[in-house]
Design goal:
Strand order of the largest sheet: 4-3-2-1-5
Order of helices and strands: HEEEEEHH
Largest sheet: 5 strands, antiparallel
Structural class: alpha+beta
Shape: flat
Number of strands: 5
Helix content: 25-40%
Radius of gyration: 35 Å
Distance between the termini: 74 Å
Length: 159
């Protein structure tokens, strides 16, 4: 056989080898991360639930979802082991940077978007009525001033 015809097969086999090798590395890193869990560590499951590790077993882990609420999960269900600062920031809302520098209060509702009564009277005069005029219900022809003969919007006069 000609080596040129074998070249695509060699490239395909090489690409498959590289892809499986990187996938194995990711699996090994995930397994190592799961094995390094300790009781008291904050974790995120693959379903997106945050919990604290209470007990570790061979293939399972006991998680405390809320105070006094425990659930048993497979170790493979742990998506990430979080450090204490990140876990507290996500779960408890602890902000170690203190971003509230100017003391701005953000309302929980849209009350700040409504107008005051004094502003309301002034803005009533500037409002434009967008409703239809009921006196002129039928459209008139622009050229003759007569009412149009059943023509809808967009219809041409030409036949």
């Amino acid at each position: 056989m000609n080596p040129v015809t074998l070249l695509p097969f060699i490239v395909l086999i090489g690409a498959m080898f590289l892809m499986t090798r990187s996938a194995k590395k990711k699996q090994a890193a995930a397994a190592q991360m799961r094995n390094e869990m300790q009781p008291g560590t904050g974790v995120r499951t693959i379903g997106g639930m945050y919990a604290t590790v209470k007990e570790l077993h061979d293939d399972t882990v006991l998680l405390e979802i809320a105070p006094g609420v425990h659930a048993i999960y497979a170790k493979n269900a742990i998506g990430a082991v979080l450090d204490d600062a990140e876990y507290n920031r996500i779960v408890h809302g602890d902000d170690e940077n203190g971003l509230d520098l100017d003391g701005t209060v953000v309302p929980d509702d849209a009350s700040s978007l409504t107008e005051d009564d004094a502003d309301k009277d002034a803005s009533d005069e500037a409002r434009i009525d967008l409703g239809k005029n009921t006196e002129d219900a039928e459209p008139k022809d622009d050229e003759s001033g007569k009412k149009s003969e059943g023509k809808d919007d967009g219809e041409a006069d030409a036949k």
